[in-house]
Amino acid sequence: MHARHALQSAGGRETTVRYGIAALTLMFGVLGAVSMFTPDGSAGSPPRMIAMAIIATSTVPFAVLVSQMSLATAWWSKTGRLRGMNNSFAIYADVGLASALATFQSPVLVLAASSLFGVVGGYVANFVHLRIVIVHMVFSTTTIVTTAAFAVAQGVGVATAGYLALVALTSANGLVLLLRNYSLSFKRALQIQLDYTTTDPLTGVLNRRGFTAAMAGVAARPGRPFAVVMIDIDHYKSINDRYGHAVGDAVLTRLAQRIRSTAGPDAVVGRLGGDEFAIAAQLGHDALERMARRLSVPASGLVGGRIVTMSVGAVCVDPLPPIPRGEADSFLAEYLNQADTALLSAKHAGRNTYVVVTADTEQASETA
Question: Most CB within 10 Å of its CB: which of 199, 210, 260, 353?
């Protein structure tokens, strides 16, 4: 989740790409409209012109759709609703282009315009599943080869049709292969870099920077419950002093695994520093209290026969109110502060316990 949020935080760059793809979509419509006045296109044939007009007009709503998509999330995850939207857009682009080409009266012009499959391929290479990439390449290849065969049957020279087909195939499929390989390589490199900069090397959970970004992702859906948990290992300094830092590190690692297991796969877990951990999750008050209770159960077997305990402070807001644009960091910092205050209450109560409070949303708003 932290990687996707880091991509989304690119903001302006993603906006440029989104509107660039939307503009290219509209450009397909413009090219279709121009072909209606081209003798070798659909000019002079009312049925062809009507069909082309419908296809060209359809680019407008699809351009609006793609301009609203979160391409950073789509590029990174390719899951859920966005995957379906990406696949639908890619299929529309392929079928729409082939349908537009079918309105042309000259097979030579069809072969020349088939290079536009390369533009569709640029999108396909980056934003859809491998299966759709294969479907696109098979579809574009079949369309181009079939058109070349039809051109030869219509009297176009074999060499001319073959040359135009080869140019179209190179443009359409070569670009897909190059961009797909680059996209995957860049993604792997980015994942390594993100892991390096946002993950705590000792425990494997997020560091403070990674947790802050991931927490913003969890809080990105107002109207749902939102919870922040702060955890502190009781008397951790005495463990280091008595048993050494190697044992202290082992305790941190084992407890981090326990915290991550207790939090569940949908929560984000971070080590904020020293022996302090934090959790952010979409949990209501009852579920949050059950989690806090499980976290405060003493752990044995970590340091010889010594039992290690943790103090837990948690804050819950249900439902999470909308956070004004540009004020997310301030709001989330206040929720962290309220969870930290609850943690101090747990420590003052004798440690080895938990305190769960309801968030003061007014205080968070005033702080922001």
Answer: 210
pLDDT at 365: 43
CA atoms of 338 and 223, how far apart (whole Å)? 20
Asked whether 227 and 280 are in contact (CB, 8 A), the reply is yes
The answer to whether 176 and 133 have CB atoms below 8 angstroms apart is yes
| Residues facing 279 on adjacent strands | 229, 269
Nearest to 56 by CA among 97, 21, 18, 20: 97
pLDDT bracket for residue 189 (50, 70, 90): confident
- Extract the tokens encoding 125: 């290479």
268-273 and 226-233: which strand pairing?
unpaired
Better-predicted residue by pLDDT, 66 or 76: 66
Tokens coding 95: 């079928």
CA atoms of 266 and 288, how far apart (whole Å):
13
- CB atoms inside a 10 Å sphere around CB 347: 15
- Residue 253 phi/psi, 5-degree rounding, is -65, -45
Element (H, E) at 340: helix 328-348
**DSSP secondary structure of 198-228:** HB-TTTSSB-HHHHHHHHHHHTTSTTS-EEE
- The tokens for 48 are 């062809």
User: CB-based contacts of 128: which residues, under 8 Å, 6+ apart?
Assistant: 78, 83, 86, 87, 90, 136
Whole-number Å distance between alpha carbons of 225 and 222: 8
Instruction: Give the chain's mean pLDDT.
Output: 86
**276 phi/psi in degrees, rounded to 5:** -105, 125
Give the phi and the psi of residue 175 in degrees, each rounded to 5: -65, -40
CA distance 141 to 78: 25
> Average pLDDT for residues 343-365, to the nearest whole number?
81
Bridge-based pairing of strands 354-358 and 310-317 is: parallel
What is the pLDDT at residue 195?
75
Q: Which residues, 6 or more positions from 3, have their beta carbon under 8 angstroms from its beta carbon?
A: 76, 190, 191, 194, 198
Tell me the per-residue pLDDT of 194-253, one tens digit each, with 9 for 90 and over: 777 888 989 999 999 889 888 888 887 788 899 999 999 999 998 888 888 898 999 999
